Amino acid sequence: MRRWKKAAYWALGGICIVALAAFAAAQPEQRPEAVRQVRFSEASGFYDAPFYLELEADGGNIYYTLDGSEPDEGGIPYEGPILIQDASKNENVYSMITDVSPYLKPELLDKNDVQLFHHYQVPDQPVDKATVVRAVSVDGWGNRSAPSDAVYFVGFGEKTGYDGMNVMSVVTDPDNLFDSKKGIYVLGDVFAENVSDGVVHRNGVNMFSWAANYNQKGRDWERPALIHCFDREGEPVFSGQYGIRIQGKATRANLPKNLNIFARKQYGNDSIDTGSLYDARYLLNRMTLYYGPSELLLADYLVEELTDGMDFADRQLEPCVMFLNGEYWGVYWLVPRFKQDYLNQRYDVDPRNIVEVKHGRIEVGQDEDIDLYEDMMSFIADHDMRDPAAYAQACELLDIQSCIDYFAVEIYIANTDWPINNIALWRSRYKADTACSDCRWRWILYDVEQGMDAQWVRVNSLKSATNRDPLFASLMKNEGFAAAVREKLLTLAEGVFAPERVSAFIAEYKRDMAEAIEKKYQRFSHETMALEDFYAGCDSIDSFFRERREYIIEQYGGKE
Q1: What is the Cα–Cα distance from 456 to 514, expressed in whole angstroms?
Q2: Per 3-state DSSP, what percentage of the chain is helix, strand, and coil (rounded to 5)?
Q3: Cα dist. 39→54, 56, 378 in Å?
Q4: Which among 25, 195, 238, 434 is least buried, having the fewest CB atoms inside 10 angstroms?
């Protein structure tokens, strides 16, 4: 009897094991990526009136967030449609954080004897806001779907400051920006480790060089972000997850800050499709949300628009309003970065064939490509450009017209942050069958915000450039080159930068940008900057070009 029971037990156990195995085999494999994403009943975009948003998932529970944070089981359980309305009346959150710039810490600046260049203030009223919804589905096994997201702008047709502007929404977990340890937008722990009793240990006078989270660089300080771009009509251009980093030098201490945007496979986007933003459609790996050092946002735009067609590379700037985690974050330029993808598509040069040097260092290419640059610089510096043979060889190394156009523009606008800074060149590594694949160096124009200052109207920028740039100094010894530079300066005075042309451009800029700039002032400097300051700054640049023309003609109009 006992033997029968034992055998029965074994038989029953075997049956159970087989049954369990069959049951398990019949079940679908449960993996996090197999859990389908949450579906939203309405797409990201602009809506005239409030509406109810419905979320759907194939089984499991839905959790969502409204503050930009990563959704998980700790989020808000979805129990029914979500009312989406104008969120602007909600309490300000991120715009009230003061650790984003030393300018919001006047006592710190006073203690370190630092001049206050910007008078930022936290807003004293609710700023405009979009509603950011991020959601996940979690199944019975605890597997979580990839997050879904959307951003909604409700009632913005009734708001000022957005007409004719593209809109960028940048959303990331708040810790990625504002956490003292990992946040890339704050002074943070990096700064705290270099200060005691309010005194900065190193570089106390140069506030821009203070150690801070936002001054850190490289992939370790890149953070994932969900980005939605809408054109001037409110239509979607591109969206998805990308990487963001703080961009710039001294501007990193400012508010708001420039942001670089990176398309990478790890984020699920190999490129950024600019669609109809620019005259040409680009598929880019990198772009920049550029605020720059100036409150006017005019100088770069004016120069790069009016010099269109001249023989140097320049950026294409599109105005946009940025929202950071749903809160209004100011006016920017959306700009392609000077990298292989942009130069390739604009100048028809194989991206693998592109070498770019910035500030004398390789920006694009291999480390050994610096020899191409240094060999060119050495040849021109070491040879007398009055010798026709030497100058002819220089013309094989450089696109001379590019050099003339570029230096003439920088000289004309009296850019004081140049050529010791903000100078870049590019070339093809080897010759190919396209026009610019000829191995000659060409110039790149960018960051001219330190030019067009009324106090430098009568400065001899030609002499300054000759003293500060050895390549230009050597080339200026050639009579033909020097005459071409002087002639180009006169051409600029009568054409590209003719006062009536500049005045018309600035008048249009003031008309198109006034409301957007005024809103920016109210957000960041509400008691210290007003629309009158914007108009006065624009008029000052207008005056510079009127007086600069007189000086240029006076200096070079009668010379051979």
Answers
A1: 26
A2: 40, 20, 40
A3: 8, 5, 61
A4: 25
Distance (Å, rounded) from C-alpha 439 to C-alpha 398? 8
Q: What is the pLDDT of residues 117-161, one digit of tens each?
A: 788 999 999 999 999 999 999 998 899 999 999 999 999 999 999
DSSP tag of 237: E
The answer to whether the beta carbons of residues 297 and 541 sit under 8 Å apart is no
Q: What values do phi and psi take at 29, rounded to 5?
A: -65, 130
224: in domain: no
Q: What is the separation of C-alpha 293 from the centre of its chain, rounded to a whole number of angstroms?
A: 13
User: What does the block give as tokens for 501?
Assistant: 């042309």
Q: What mean pLDDT is reported for the chain?
A: 92
* C-alpha separations of 527 from 65, 117, 522 in Å: 34, 15, 8
Q: What mean pLDDT do residues 464-488 have?
A: 97
Strands in 310-371 per DSSP E? 313-314, 318-324, 327-336, 354-358, 361-364
**What are the structure tokens assigned to 492, written together?**
């600029």
Residue 187 located in a structural domain:
no
Residue 365: which domain range?
350-497
Domain boundary among 497, 526, 545: 497
Q: What's the CATH code of the domain at 146?
A: 2.60.40
331 forms bridges with which residues in the sheet?
Answer: 321
Domain boundary among 113, 137, 159: 159
Question: Over pLDDT 90: what percentage of the chain?
Answer: 84
CA distances 490 to 496, 497, 505, Å, are 10, 10, 20
Q: Tell me the pLDDT band of 86, cut-offs 50, 70 and 90.
A: very high
Domain count, the chain: 2
Does residue 13 have a pLDDT over 60? Answer: no
Stated length of the chain: 560
On whether the CB atoms of residues 167 and 321 are closer than 8 A, the answer is yes
> Residue 252 — very low, low, confident or very high, per pLDDT cuts 50/70/90?
very high
CA torsion, ordered 172, 177, 182, 187, to nearest 10 deg: 170
Torsion sign, CA atoms 224, 246, 302, 445: negative
- Give the pTM: 0.90
Residue 410 forms part of a structural domain: yes
